[in-house]
Specification:
The complex is a heterodimer. By secondary structure, chain A is mainly alpha-helical. Chain A has a domain of about 200 residues. Chain A has eleven helices and four strands; from the N terminus they run ααααβββααααβααα. In chain A, a hairpin with a 2-residue loop joins strand 2 and strand 3. In chain B, strand 9 and strand 10 form a beta hairpin. The longest helix of chain B has 15 residues. Chain B starts with a strand and ends with a helix. Classes of the chains: A mainly alpha, B alpha/beta. The interface between A and B is medium-sized, with 21 and 29 residues. Bound molecules: adenosine-5'-diphosphate and magnesium ion (MG).
Chain lengths: ~290, ~230
């Protein structure tokens, strides 16, 4: 393998990792902080993709489209949290059931609004070309995905490390009454957190659409499965684990795909099985307490 | 002088059950004890002041303004802190338990003062609160109240389940805290309550049935036998 070939594959792997990270990060945060297994995560991701596609085709403004996709998903998440999840706080099993219901609802809603067939989602002009890497080349869109993944990673890592917010949400999940009694508006805290996770899902969907150049109503389910695999490999609820899981799968897919394209089909599942055999809690199991 | 906290004939239902049927009390400076048998309604009374349960009837006033109908976090922000028995967040380190709701700047500003009273905190700051002994957890919960510097402290059974030597330490801390803030103290340990409080109220089956000064109560064996099952 030549150096330029290696670089291209490495960047392809990194962009695949960025996509997986964008898909999984919201799922991971909502579970890690709120103990909610959000099965509607993929559907929120897909809603973000559809809204972004519609806005992009109407205005030609891709940054606006991404923002709109994120906001649409966030809005859906906020409504869902207020109406259906909040009354079930402290009952994770019921909350998971609710998210399954929302997933089915959103999947159907997308079909009602945009129809059952694929719709193309073209790439924004400035991101459409290729960039030369020595004797090879990589698409600008992949470089863009790496950038978005990096920005979201840095923002979330900084937010989690520097603010009391993460610890507050954990405290609220453990004992909402006690936290409320210390002057914290726990309702707002939970709504914000869930909305943030949904926003990240929507942004993920919005940048995913142009990558595969289309949106389709089965997107939600396939992304849900990929995200779960990332999060299970990384360690459920661990932010660092989600980063690690995304990198591992993205990179292995790129390099194994280069060596033997047929092997990538089963890669995710095999990798998950191997990791779970060695470390049943995932690569980075969550420390249950915070300092 | 106007009362710091005034509770007047409140009734509270939980589900279909009528739990509080007529609780009245007033808190002034110093320690006021709220006594009564198990299940008399002491915790529910404190929780109702904090807004966890809505009142069906009656008034609750703090520094002259009504608390009825306010959400819990707004009541807390008026300067009332409720400390349940060993009320800590198990998943958080001791330090985060203390700083979580006030922010790190306020935490740093008051740290020296709180640690001068509760010297035992220094060694356990980095430990998860879930790993502490019951007595240590109670100390952390009370330390958090000191950090908040409330205008009224509701202290629910601080001695529950603790060994006698630890109860003594808790008592000393409460005495120190009482110099900073008025305290409404729920206690089953009558000896401890009588050492700390000046006034008392007795609840029985969701009603205030007796009020007076602790000195009177200490001398009244019949009253203690009837409502506190002592003697
Ligand atoms: N969350 C609740 N749900 C139903 N009943 C409750 C609840 N909390 C307290 N009770 C009932 O209210 C009564 C008073 O309880 P409580 O105030 O905790 O008593 P105590 O005086 O020992 O603190 C008890 O009969 C108790 O069973
Ligand atoms: Mg009680």
């Amino acid at each position: 393998m030549s150096l330029s070939m290696f670089l291209v594959i490495f960047l392809e792997g990194l962009s695949a990792s960025a996509l997986l990270f964008l898909a999984a990060v919201g799922l991971s945060i909502i579970f890690g902080l709120m103990d909610i297994l959000n099965f509607s995560h993929g559907a929120l991701f897909m809603s973000g993709a559809y809204v972004a596609m519609t806005i992009f085709h109407a205005t030609g403004n891709f940054p606006l489209a991404v923002l709109a996709g994120g906001c649409a998903a966030a809005l859906l998440g906020l409504v869902m949290e207020r109406l259906a999840l909040r009354p079930l706080r402290g009952r994770p099993l019921y909350q998971a059931m609710v998210t399954i219901g929302v997933m089915l609802f959103l999947d159907q809603l997308v079909i009602e609004i945009w129809g059952p067939s694929l719709i193309s989602f073209s790439r924004w002009g400035p991101l459409a070309g290729m960039t030369a890497i020595m004797s090879g080349a990589i698409s600008n869109y992949r470089l863009f995905l790496i950038l978005v993944g990096l920005v979201v990673f840095l923002l979330m890592a900084g937010f989690l490390a520097s603010s009391r917010w993460g610890a507050m949400v954990r405290a609220g999940v453990e004992n909402a009454g006690l936290l409320e009694g210390l002057g914290v508006n726990t309702g707002l805290l939970f709504t914000f957190t869930f909305g943030l996770g949904a926003f990240l899902a929507g942004v993920g969907g919005a940048v995913y659409g142009p990558f595969i150049r289309l949106v389709d109503p089965n997107l939600g389910l396939s992304i849900l499965i990929d995200s779960f695999i990332v999060v299970v490999i990384g360690g459920f609820g661990s932010f660092g684990g989600t980063v690690l899981g995304s990198l591992l799968i993205g990179m292995l897919q790129a390099f194994i795909g280069y060596l033997s394209p047929g092997l990538t089909v089963m890669l995710n599942v095999v990798l998950m099985a191997v990791v779970l055999l060695i470390k049943p809690d995932g690569l980075m199991s969550v420390r249950r307490w915070r300092a | 002088m106007s009362k710091i906290l005034m509770v007047e004939d409140i009734a509270v239902d939980i589900g279909k059950l009528n739990i509080l049927k007529g609780v009245s009390l007033a808190v002034e400076n110093g320690v006021t004890a709220l006594l009564g048998r198990n299940s008399a309604g002491k915790t529910v009374t404190l929780n109702t002041v904090m807004g966890y349960w809505p009142v069906r009837r009656g008034r609750i006033e703090f520094l002259g303004a009504s608390l009825v109908g306010l959400p819990t976090h707004r009541i807390a922000r008026q300067g009332i802190v409720y400390v349940p028995p060993r009320g800590v967040f198990h998943d958080l380190s001791v330090e985060l338990n203390l700083s979580l709701a006030i922010g790190s700047r306020a935490y740093r500003a008051r740290r020296e003062y709180v640690f001068s009273i509760l010297t035992e905190l220094k060694d356990i700051l980095k430990m998860p609160a879930g790993c502490l002994s019951g007595g240590q957890q109670q100390i952390v919960a009370m330390a958090r109240a000191l950090f908040h510097g409330p205008r009224l402290l509701l202290l629910d059974e601080p001695s529950r389940g603790l060994a006698p030597v630890i109860i003594q330490r808790i008592g000393a801390v409460i005495r120190e805290m009482a110099r900073q803030m008025p305290i409404l103290l729920v206690e089953q340990n009558f000896t401890l309550a009588s050492e700390l409080a000046r006034d008392f109220y007795i609840l029985d089956d969701g009603r205030t049935v007796y009020a007076g000064t602790i000195a009177e109560l200490a001398a009244d064996d019949e009253l203690k036998r009837r409502y506190l099952a002592i003697g």
